[in-house]
TrEMBL record:
PROSITE patterns for the chain: TPR, TPR_REGION
Signal sequence region: none
Annotated source species: Vasconcelosia minhoensis LEGE 07310
Name of the protein this chain belongs to: Tetratricopeptide repeat protein
Compositionally biased spans, kind Polar residues: 115-124
Keyword Membrane recorded: yes
TPR repeat extents: 8-41
Length: 172
C-alpha cells in the first residue's frame, strides 16, 4: 500500500513539473497515469483531477476539461467540489472579442540570423539629444527682508499647554 502511494505521488509530481514547464501533453499523460493508480474519490484523487482539468484546458482540450470539471462538482471532498465549481464558472465563461489595439503583437523572431540578438525597429533607435536651455538657479533669499520679529506664538502655546495640563491635574 505504501509503495502504491509513493508511486502515485511520484507520477503526480512529474505531472506538476511538466505542467509548470508548459509541457501540457506530458502533464496530461502523467496525471491520467496517477489517476489510474489512485482512487478518484479521495482528497489526492481530487487534487490530481483538478490538475488534470487545468492541463486539459492549457493543452487545448477545452471540452475534456469542462466535462471532467462538471464531474468534479459532485466529488465527495468539499474543497475539490468548491474549486471545481469556481473553475467550471471560468471555463464556461464566454470568450471576449478583442480589439486589435488591445493586443500587443509579439514579433516573429524565427528570421533572426545566427548571432543577431535584436530586430531593427524604429522604436529601438535612440532619440537625438537636443541642447536644452540651461535652467536658471533660483536667486538666493535676502535674509534682511525676512520678518524675524518675535510674534509671541511660542509663549501663547506654552501658556495654553500649561492651562490644559493644570486643568487635567485638577480634575483628576
Amino acid at each position: 500500500m505504501g509503495s502504491e502511494r509513493e508511486q502515485v505521488q511520484t507520477v503526480y509530481r512529474l505531472g506538476q513539473a511538466a505542467f509548470e514547464r508548459g509541457r501540457y501533453r506530458e502533464a496530461i499523460a502523467a496525471f491520467e497515469q496517477a489517476l489510474e493508480l489512485a482512487s478518484k474519490n479521495t482528497v489526492l484523487g481530487g487534487e490530481i483531477q483538478m490538475w488534470l482539468v487545468n492541463a486539459y484546458a492549457a493543452g487545448g482540450r477545452q471540452a475534456d476539461a469542462i466535462a471532467l470539471c462538471r464531474r468534479l462538482t459532485r466529488h465527495p471532498d468539499t474543497e475539490t467540489k468548491q474549486q471545481s465549481k469556481r473553475l467550471l464558472y471560468i471555463l464556461e465563461a464566454p470568450r471576449l472579442a478583442l480589439k486589435p489595439e488591445w493586443v500587443t503583437q509579439i514579433p516573429d523572431l524565427s528570421g533572426l540570423a545566427d548571432g543577431q540578438t535584436t530586430l531593427e525597429s524604429p522604436y529601438s533607435q535612440k532619440p537625438k539629444r537636443s541642447r536644452r536651455a540651461r535652467v536658471a538657479e533660483p536667486e538666493p533669499v535676502d535674509l534682511n527682508q525676512v520678518n524675524t520679529a518675535d510674534n509671541q506664538f511660542v509663549w501663547v502655546a506654552l501658556v495654553g499647554a500649561a492651562i490644559v495640563l493644570g486643568g487635567l491635574l485638577w480634575l483628576s
